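Weekly modeling sync, notes
Attendees: S.R. (lead), two postdocs, one rotation student

Agenda item 3: backlog of single-chain predictions. S.R. asked that every request posted to the team notebook include the full sequence so nobody has to chase files. The rotation student volunteered to paste the first one in as an example of the format we agreed on. Action items at the bottom.

Example entry:
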Amino acid sequence: GRYAVGQKVPPKNNNNGENWRRQIRSTFVTVNRIMRSAVAAATPTSASRCPPTTVRSSSIVGARSKTLGGRYAVVSMRSRWFPSHHQKQQQQRCSGNDQKASFSTTTATSKRMTTTTTKTTHRRRRRRSKDFQASRKDEEATAKDAGVDHWPSGENHEHLTICVFGASGDLAKKKIYPSLLALFYEGRLPKSFSVFGYARSKMSSEEFREKIRMSLGCRIEANADCDDFMEVFLSRCEYVHGNYDVDADFQKLDAEMLKTEEGKRAMRVFYLSIPPSIFVPVAQMSSRNVQSKTGETRVIVEKPFGRDLESSRALTKALAAELSEKQTYRIDHYLGKELIENLTVLRFSNIMFQPLWNRNYIRNVQINFSENFGTEGRGGYFDNYGIIRDIMQNHLLQIMALFAMEEPASLDAEDIRDEKVKVIRSIREIDIDNVVLGQYKGKTSGSNVFPAYLDDETVPKGSNCATFAAIALFIDNARWDGVPFLMKAGKALHKRGCEIRIQFRHAPGNIYADKKSSGGGGTTGNSSNAQCNELVIRIQPDEAIYLKINNKVPGLGHKMDRSVLDLTYKSKYSVGELPDAYERLILDVIHGDKRLFIRNDELEAAWKLFTPLLETIESENIPPELYPYGSRGPIGAHYLASRWNVRWGDTN
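Predicted structure, as returned to the notebook:
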């Protein structure tokens, strides 16, 4: 039936509630009578080869009998007594008439309850079908009405138009459009919005919708039904094809946008999901032909922001000629990850960490990034940039700046970015002796063949491009003087992940230095590394924050062990899948919040730091050290860490 027997059902009125209670009491009486009859008829004889077993009843009955010669379970009000899988096996193994009689007697007796509930069951099925149809209509109405009436940024806009340039590419299909759907599902977008895709590929809006439909899914809940939201979202999506340097094509795009805006005060957000070589033409065309006539225009620029200091300056200057700094949002999707945004909360809202976050207590900081796959056909693009430009100069340096910065005056975007710039400018010039480069080579494991970087057909023959790098950095200020910040990033390593590891100094005068556990899970290695506390912030996957501490092993001895105080997000918070970084960053653009976006002087300081190193590597054509596909990286990385009396924490 619609409700299980014994389940508490909220009555629509007092009479219905009393009827339910009577029905439940009556059913329990009937079931108990049936069970007593079955027990009497089914008690096995001493000659039976089948031992007595326990009857398992569902929550409907809530009672057990220890003498039935088989297992039968009531599964609902209208259920018969069905044999369990265990009982079926017993029937095949055992002989005798007692058990057969038990089953037939029980089945015949239970028919009385089945007959009395058939009509009620049909009525409930009809009622449930009507309720489902009504809830379906409610969901459709909810999808159409989803959105916010008032913009949290407090701006006076009536419509939002988002245009994705490069809409036919992988980034748009895999990240941008799914993130927009998730924001729509959660009601984060304004009620009046439209999404335009623009690219050179010729297709209609209907064909484009079908193309992106397969990449859309419901991130919020695994069992959620997003179909209605998806259909409404797709109905707001349009596509315009054209060239990136033709005024007429952009004017056609503007005309289509005006149709959907219907004269409302509209904000336009342009997402440049395109190669850096066409950033400037698209910025020029959109600024001259497609800027909002009634509201603000904001532009999201994807990395890379140049290849070196000179090209970055040229790009910044060209964009500044068309867009103001206020309009420009340089996106680094790593800054939108949950644990990165929680980093400042962890530091500045927990007093226990504030006195420890300095050179007096922290021995070293490790920022590790690893991927367990290679370039996989993208070698041509990757070879033009390398691991340092692709990962270190932006993602990892931004994480380091957030970790090491002083407490800002407020949570205002400019105050936070001021402190980040101070950190980057305080980093000592990178010594080539503190750098290790690597490139993965092929490996065969059984029937599996893992190709080398140079086996990628898109990679130039004999390329010395690094797919792995480890660097020791130092911040020359009062807080971090002498503390090594070890940064490591690589492809085709043993696992996928990104984490920050803070290794604290050993306790002064440590009287327990020689008390190590002799069993599994105890500390190993030298006592300096083994007994130091370590705080780990795992950014991805399986977001978590955990602290390694020393404690005594239970028992009469005096052995020490290392334990973990663990905050794993999936265990602590029942939030399902965490929001994607692109969701948070796109929403911040709509709200005008620039805390997690890179300012032009940050970009300048970052390139000033890394450009001399990159020029040295390329001018001297330094060959990378080879390491096997799926390994922990080149051996040189471990020698680099040992130079500063450090052991990489992610290799434990």
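Discussion: group reviewed the output briefly. The longest strand covers residues 362-370.
Action items: rotation student to repeat for the remaining queue; S.R. to check formatting next week.
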